[in-house]
Design a protein that fits this description.
Layout: H1 19-27, H2 31-44, H3 47-57
Helix pairs in contact: 1-2, 2-3
């Protein structure tokens, strides 16, 4: 039986809050890709809101 992946904020791949690093670990991809997506969302007008909400609700590992 495989262990279930859980979404946590990363303590290793942390730049500000560890949100992007946590998503990258969860999906098994490079954190740079997630950071670029959040940057695109930031310029679209709702990236900061998504990041802050994720920072509040995603627990630290």
């Amino acid at each position: 039986m495989a262990a279930k992946n859980r979404l946590y904020r990363s303590s290793r791949e942390k730049v500000i809050g560890g949100v992007c690093g946590g998503f990258a670990e969860y999906f098994g991809i490079d954190p740079i890709i997630i950071r670029l997506l959040f940057l695109i969302f930031l310029f679209a007008g709702f990236g900061l809101l998504i990041y802050v909400i994720a920072w509040i609700f995603i627990p630290t590992k």
